[in-house]
Amino acid sequence: MTNSIAEIEDADCMFVIGSNTTEAHPVIALRMKKALRRGAKLLVADPRKTWLARHADLHLQLTPGTDIPLLCGMAYVILEEGLQDQNYIDNLTENFDEFAAAVNEWPPERAAKVCGVPAGMIREAARIYATTERAGIYYTLGITEHICGVDNVRALSNLALITGHIGRESAGVNPLRGQNNVQGCNDMGNNPTYLPGYQAVDNADELRKFSDAWGSELSSVPGLRLDQMMAGMHDDSVKCFYIMGEDPIISEPNLSHVEKGFAKLDFVVCQDIFLTETARKYADVVLPSSCFAEKSGTFTNSERRVQRVRRSVDPPGNARTDLRILLDVARALGHDFGEENPRAIWDEVAALSPKFSGIHYARIEEVGLQWPCPDVDHPGTKFLHEGAPIRGKGLLYAVDHVPPGEEPCAEYPVLLTTGRTLYHYNAATMTMRSPGNVEKQSLPFVEISPDDARDLGVVEGQALQMESRRGQVEVLAQITDRVHPGVVWMGMHYAEARANLLTSDAKDPEIGVPEYKVTAVRLHPAG
Amino acid sequence: MSQIRLGLDGKQIEVEPHTTLLQAAHQHGIEIPTLCHDDRLDPYGGCRLCLVEVDGAPRPVAACKTVCADNMTVRTHSDDLHRLRRTMLDMLMAEHYEDVGVKPNQLQELAAEHQLVQPSLKLGRRAAYDDRNQWIGFNPGACIMCDRCVRYCDEVMQCSALEHVGQGVGAVVQPTGRKSFLDTSCELCGGCVSTCPTGALYEKQAIVKRGEEVVLGGGGPIADAECEKTRSVCTFCGVGCVLDLNTKDGKVVKVTSDIGVGPNEGNLCNKGKFAFEFIHHSDRLTEPLVRGADGELHVTSWDDALQKVAAGMNGVKQRSGPDAIGFLASSRCTNEDVYIVQKIARAAIGTNNVHSCAAT
Ligand code: SF4
Ligand code: SF4
Ligand code: SF4
Ligand code: FES
């Protein structure tokens, strides 16, 4: 996030797009609810009528996969009506002309035809967003899990830049992170092109610093992204996986294909707290590890705040902490990375990464610190891009609509989109083992509009067979006007009805994030 | 806007406009007892425990609801106020039945601080309420109708799953229509529990021992004092809510959160508050496993498992090169854990093939 969680409640306008915040990030949603009580404006762009959508000033109920036409249409109105922050554009952005030319292709009337949101509503939304002082954008996987995920984010940042809604309190562009430590996992360099602290492997100076510190000559060849590793299993370039706390044969798209790849591997290690499907079927060695309550260290949340995690109970049986296991694996490979001491390891991270060098355990025992935090006197950074964009000038991008990898057709006429629910979490390995969550919501369901349900002749709770080009699952119908006719929605959490049997491996060409959000399916009553 | 100046317990102080007397007192380290107040809620002024004397005012005013004004002179403690507060507590204790199994709580502490041993009378006991849900317990016999829970659900969650019905001695607070929490608009966030000052609403203990058998979920209330608290961070989504794991006999039995603490200010959702039963689930892996010649996984020792990991990876490295090995780091593990993952990939194996499952 460019901003802090606490700033949300002071926003004058919240533009929430592709985020069902009340279910996926409930406590961030509390800040939004507080802002709403204060009278803040709320714009929600979502294919579903979510809680926030129902409470919004405007609900832009777009067709899944058409965010760019919507956002370009809004930019068109802002430029047409002169609502932009010309000062900010002139002094702090570049590439305006190319951007403006691209936007010029999208009068709201044309955008409306593609995204399904009436032109008048696009105009109104643009005016509200552009003319409020503290206007923040909040998004999540509904923006990124598309074939054009990167361009979606650029289209959002374009809006913030031309209105100067960035670099100030409560104004910015805020991705809300899905898993508790996605932010930290990236920060720590679990990325094929970045070392810890976003230092590039192909930057000779930065690579040298790490090679010296670690006493090994490191490779300057960028590695494979997750999707490339998955593909590498099929052409034999990847022969071995070390998998920690993940279950790729559940979580990756186009599962049947993924499993064929796993069957070809030479060696697989899984380190986890439960026996995952991947471990059960493909692991050669399974290492029993620890959950958050059994270890010490830090997590970094969505607002870049590094916070202390503390051990409160012992791992069960002979399970061990992840840190101990990893250090022992390193030792077995002939490398001594030191003792199991999270504080010392964090200090190593801080010493090697200017963004974190001012953060030490002693400073975060009570309250966490937000990076960048370059030295021990630095108070941490509440919001980014203060005064000017970090890279000097904000780059405006010319973006254009990219139709989803798969669109409804005669054979698969319905659009499936997926997401999280309030009571479960990802593959639900944890929540399905908590009796209270199961009691509230245990069976896989699909949200379907009353019209579509009538056409199919199904009633509430009836079992449906849902098929895509790649697979099929059985789910229960939940008839609701939360979705438009022609669109259905299901949670991603169920082992017995894995949404990813259906999803395609179409992906964003730049970063390889799969298009979980748009799949063409057909439905019929089961049995 | 300019600062407001006033006298508080004999000191001249300055505060921001719109500051309440209660906030001003806190800013200056002065404790005023409160019961119906929670910083996360709108000022309410229901329990009258926070009464203070203001010069010129005909009677004491509620500090939680009164906004500071220029030239006010305020006394937060006096013999009269102590007597008044004791009377209020006496009336509240008349409604609060301790023998329904409630644990020590804020109300009882305040009563003790005001030397109230036995209330002068007892009002009728509110009818018990039974619920099949596993997480939230409710004991109406202990309730004092402060409405904190109802207001939390209305103002903070905006869920309106609790209601205050009836009047006078017949009044009760309950889940809408006296249904199960599972059958109302409740989202099981536990916020009402976190704000309740009497223990009428409580966390059902997550681990129950029935003889030798350990059952997950649905236990009775457990006092904070019986638990050891460890401050940590929620393991689910990226909000990073700060919470306290309450442990007893080496097990996490409940999760609590202090008002105002962390980016969540003490609020949680159902996952952070209640969905931790998985920690002690019998499906947890407890032994290293290796796949045998029969194609099945078998229990082994750590030494053997680690040696097989090293041999397996070294073998692939020799046959196919370091870039034939890929690492998938967990977005749920700590920074320190995943730092070591990429260090193994880069420094011990020699590849940059390290990524995680989620890009946002
Ligand atoms: S648990 Fe949360 S949603 Fe449910 S009644 Fe209590 S405050 Fe309301
Ligand atoms: S249940 Fe607790 S919070 Fe709710 S009214 Fe009764 S005493 Fe107050
Ligand atoms: S308590 Fe809920 S909102 Fe907070 S971090 Fe956990 S899952 Fe996210
Ligand atoms: S705390 Fe002020 S009236 Fe209850």
Task: Describe what you observe in this structure.
The complex is a heterodimer of chains A (527) and B (360). Chain A is built from 21 helices and 21 strands. Chain A has 3 domains: 5-176, Dimethylsulfoxide Reductase, domain 2, CATH 3.40.228; 182-370, Rossmann fold (3-Layer(aba) Sandwich); 414-525, Barwin-like endoglucanases (Beta Barrel). In chain A, helix 4 packs antiparallel against helix 7, helix 4 crosses helix 8 (119-131) and helix 4 (67-80) packs parallel to helix 10 (149-162). By secondary structure, chain A is α/β, with parallel strands linked by helices. The radius of gyration of chain A is 24 Å and the shape is globular. In chain A, the strands form 6 sheets. Chain A has a 6-stranded mixed β-barrel. A 5-stranded parallel β-sheet of chain A has the order 3-2-1-5-6, sandwiched between helices. Chain A has a 3-stranded parallel β-sheet with strand order 9-10-11. The two termini of chain A are 47 Å apart. Chain B is an alpha+beta fold and 360 residues long. Chain B has 8 helices and 18 strands. Chain B has helices spanning 21-27, 79-95, 106-113, 148-156, 191-195, 270-274, 302-320, 335-349; strands spanning 4-8, 11-15, 51-54, 61-62, 73-75, 136-138, 162-165, 172-175, 201-203, 207-210, 213-216, 228-233, 242-248, 251-256, 289-291, 297-299, 325-329, 354-356. Chain B has a 5-stranded mixed β-sheet with strand order 2-1-5-3-4, sandwiched between helices. Chain B has a 3-stranded antiparallel β-sheet with strand order 12-13-14. A two-stranded antiparallel sheet of chain B has the order 6-9. In chain B, a hairpin with a 2-residue loop joins strand 13 (242-248) and strand 14 (251-256). In chain B, helix 2 packs across helix 3. Chain B is elongated and about 90 Å long. Chains A and B meet through helix 2, helix 11, helix 13, strand 9 and strand 10 of A and strand 12, strand 13, helix 6, strand 15 and helix 7 of B. Strand 11 (285-288) of chain A pairs antiparallel with strand 15 of chain B, so a sheet runs across the interface.
